[in-house]
Design goal:
The chain is an alpha+beta fold. The chain contains 5 helices and 8 strands, in the order E-H-E-E-H-E-E-H-E-E-H-H-E.
Length: about 190
């Protein structure tokens, strides 16, 4: 647990998705965790590649191959992250659905409480919806006193995602909301 991950956002040209996505997948090699194609809040030809490494040193060593494969792509944006309570093991994402990528900007001093609130709310949330929390990561590229967390959740459909918005009144979610300075969400499908 607590592997180092990298999120690489990228945008390909018209008609290039399949070829460029395949090139990135091969370059990721054994560190591949998931690739997602934009749906809401991302361009149709925009994607997110998640890779996982046992530590920061291995991520740094592997980044050259990914950067070479990404040469010529528009809008490249990479962020290094560390897994918190999920995922518990590195296993590539394979289940079809809608994937919501949500970021949270909080005070670093609230990080431990933020993670605990999230973890406590998930079992009942997952039991109430056709949804699975894939992971909650803390950015390594944001330094105290600030912190950024990334939450990846799989929903059966956009209707399921929308229905789950009514569940934000749960005490843990309400408290987490109070700790949150800013939050953004985009959705994607498994590529």
């Amino acid at each position: 647990m607590h592997e180092t991950y990298e999120s690489l956002r990228f945008c390909v040209g018209p008609g290039e998705w399949e070829a460029r996505a395949a090139t990135l997948h091969v370059a990721a090699g054994g560190s591949f965790f998931g690739m997602f194609r934009g749906q809401i809040g991302l361009e149709a030809n925009e994607g997110v590649l998640l890779t996982a490494y046992s530590d920061e040193a291995r991520l740094a060593a592997a980044s050259g191959a990914l950067r070479a494969a990404a040469e010529g792509l528009r809008g490249l944006c990479a962020e290094r992250m560390i897994a918190t309570v999920r995922p518990v093991r590195v296993s590539p994402v394979t289940i079809a659905g809608v994937y919501a990528f949500r970021s949270f900007e909080i005070a670093d001093s609230d990080s431990e409480e933020f993670v605990s609130l999230s973890e406590r709310a998930w079992p009942e949330f997952e039991a109430g919806f056709d949804a699975q929390i894939i992971g909650l990561w803390k950015s390594l590229d944001v330094r105290p006193p600030e912190a950024r967390f990334h939450l990846l959740t799989r929903y059966a459909s956009l209707a399921t995602w929308e229905a789950s918005r009514a569940d934000v009144g749960r005490p843990e979610f309400a408290r987490r909301h109070k700790l949150t300075r800013a939050t953004r969400v985009v959705t994607a499908t498994l590529a």
